[in-house]
Write a structure and sequence with these properties.
Layout: E1 3-4, E2 10-14, H1 18-30, E3 34-38, H2 41-48, E4 55-59, H3 67-77, E5 86-90, H4 100-105, E6 110-113, H5 118-131, E7 142-143, H6 148-155
Parallel strand pairs: 2-3, 2-4, 4-5, 5-6, 6-7
Antiparallel strand pairs: 1-3
Amino acid sequence: MAEDQGSGGLVLVVEDDPDAQQVALSMLALLGFRTRLAGNGREALDLLRTVKPDLVLLDLHMPELDGLAFLDTGARELPGFDELTIIATSGVYRNQTSISRPLQRRGVRHFVGKPFSLQRLRTAVEAALADGPGLEAEGEPAAAPAGPARDEVQRAPVTPRGGMVRAPTAG
């Protein structure tokens, strides 16, 4: 699925894992967003030459051009790249502590670990869209809150690569 016809803003999903792609696209559709899909950072850069999304949901670990390289290349090559609102995601970095400084240096203020629940994604998307693009003067990238939603994420079935294996349900 390369594009979903929701009624809300446009989200570019940059994700290489097919299961994680399906989960992200399904969740974003439930949240009312239209989506475009790029299977790696290189595809995403190509899309960004013609498409201006309201938000980018960026996996950090991908073949060909990973998330950090995507951020570096986009900043060098694409005018207006620093105006993008980006949420970084990762199944390797389950919390923002170990990746916050590299993301912060690249202007990314929001992170959500995978697998994530619909509520955690909603919280991250709402925060990112409210904050807008760019880097705050102080602080770490924001993450979805811990607590019951985190426990739910920890219990979610996962594939060997860390993606959720079932599509979300409403409610």
